[in-house]
Structure formats: structure tokens, C-alpha cells
Automatic annotation (TrEMBL):
Coiled coil: none annotated. SUPFAM superfamilies: SMAD/FHA domain. This is FHA domain-containing protein. InterPro entries: Cell_Proc_Reg/RNA_Proc (IPR050923), FHA_dom (IPR000253), SMAD_FHA_dom_sf (IPR008984). It comes from Candidatus Propionivibrio dominans. Transmembrane segments: none annotated. Pfam families: FHA. It comes from the Bacteria. PANTHER family: NUCLEAR INHIBITOR OF PROTEIN PHOSPHATASE-1. Residues 23-72 form the FHA domain.
Length: 246
């Protein structure tokens, strides 16, 4: 479980496990993490955690929030990141989290290359001679099998989402979006997440000055629901979102 280590002037004050999906930080007593200091806003920031992924969001605080000495509005947290609020520091410690070290976006944007797989072959096996003979005999004997009703198309909630890379060295590769949260992008440059919810898939900008592009339009900071065959662009890599049969 990830945690935050609160300190001031090098003195560790306490450790806070990230036990909730959203934990607020601020001067007011109603916050999950209260820091009673006038340099900190009443509701200063929040840390959102989904499974093994956490990101920090500044809540329009008066004095701002720093991560590793750099101003941050939204920041995808990595193990060892230090959040600074006035004189106080919160070190993010992620236990048993796989860290991405490669700089090549095409290798790292979809977690691990091993999760990528080529699209399945479209060719279907033809009927064997025995099957063809049985079908011919049934038809001429008056035993025509009843027609099979076509299955209804899957809905966004029932179908599994996937993305296919459209350009670069990994073009044509696919990744099924089976996790609750899938992180895409280059940490420190541009990061977005695709969240799997009961009523569909949603993309949200997390980190970076540039926002993701969806069907040729730059999205804002809000979560946007993805539709079948939407085209997403993150850090120059284009990918198509589509729904697979459940």
C-alpha cells in the first residue's frame, strides 16, 4: 500500500497510508490530512489513488503546491516524489509498484511490451468434408437446422475496451484495457489515464502542459467518456480505442 511521510525541517512527523481513493490535504480539520499552518489553504490539495496508481491535484491553493521543487497542478506520483506545501513535505512511497525506466515512449506508454499483442487473424477454418456431408444430408432430409439469432452488439459497460497503436514502431499492436486504471504517456512530459467504470471508459489528463487530443480536438481537464473507434493522441503517438466482444 502506498503512503505519504509527513516531515518538516527534516523531522518526520507521521506516516499516512493512502487507504482511501481520495485523500484531501489542508488546514481545515475536515481534511483527511490536516496541516495546521497559515501558509496552507483550507483545502489545499488531494491525492487520488486507484489500485497502484496515485496522482496529486492542487485545489487552487493560495500558495500553490510543489512536487520535487517544481510547481504542479496535476502530477502523476512516482515512488520517492516529494510534495511540498510551505515548510512541510510529504514523501510519496509506493510499495510493490512497477516503475517504468525506459525513455522510449513507444516501449513504455502501455506499461509493458509483453502486454501488447497483434490483432487476431481473420481467417476462419473451412468445414471438414464430414461436416459438409452431414449438412447436405440434413438439408435434403428436411431437417434444416433453425437459423441462429445474431448476438446483440456489446455495450460499453459489457464489452472490454482496447487500444490499437496507429503509428510508430509499435503500430498495429493492441492492449486490452482490463485494469481499473491504465496509465499512458511519458512521466514528466505528458501523462493521461483511461479509467474503466461500470458505464464505460473515460480518459483524464494527469500531467504535462499539453492535453490529450481526442478525435482531433484538445480535451480539457475533465474526464471524457470514450466511444467506439475514438482516436486518441498522447505525446505524438496516435491510438484507436475500440470495444471488443465480452
Amino acid at each position: 500500500m502506498a503512503k505519504l511521510i509527513l516531515s518538516m525541517d527534516g523531522l518526520v512527523l507521521k506516516e499516512i497510508p493512502l487507504t482511501k481513493e481520495r485523500m484531501s490535504i489542508g488546514r481545515k480539520a475536515s481534511n483527511d490530512i490536516q496541516i495546521d499552518n497559515l501558509a496552507i489553504s483550507g483545502e489545499h490539495a488531494a491525492v487520488v489513488t486507484i489500485l497502484n496508481d496515485s496522482f496529486l491535484e492542487d485545489l487552487n491553493s493560495t500558495n500553490g503546491t510543489l512536487v520535487n521543487s517544481q510547481p504542479a497542478k496535476k502530477h502523476f506520483l512516482k515512488n520517492g516524489d516529494v510534495i511540498e506545501l510551505g515548510k512541510y513535505k510529504l514523501k510519496y512511497v509506493a510499495e510493490q509498484v512497477q516503475q517504468v525506466h525506459e525513455a522510449d515512449f513507444e516501449k513504455t506508454m502501455i506499461l509493458r511490451p509483453s502486454t501488447l499483442k497483434p490483432p487476431p487473424a481473420a481467417e476462419q477454418p473451412s468445414a471438414t468434408p464430414a461436416e459438409a456431408k452431414n449438412s447436405f444430408a440434413d438439408t435434403h432430409a428436411g431437417n434444416t437446422p433453425p437459423p441462429v439469432a445474431a448476438a446483440p452488439p456489446p455495450t460499453a459497460a459489457a464489452a472490454t475496451g482496447a487500444i490499437q497503436i496507429l503509428n510508430g514502431a509499435s503500430a498495429g499492436r493492441e492492449l486490452e484495457l482490463t485494469k481499473t486504471l491504465t496509465t499512458l504517456g511519458k512521466p514528466g512530459v505528458q501523462v493521461a489515464v483511461i479509467a474503466r467504470r461500470p458505464h464505460g471508459y473515460f480518459i483524464t489528463h494527469v500531467e504535462g502542459a499539453q492535453y490529450p487530443v481526442l478525435n482531433g480536438q484538445v480535451v480539457d481537464a475533465q474526464a471524457h467518456q470514450l466511444a467506439d473507434h475514438d482516436v486518441i493522441e498522447i505525446a505524438g503517438i496516435k491510438m484507436e480505442f475500440f470495444l471488443k466482444n465480452a
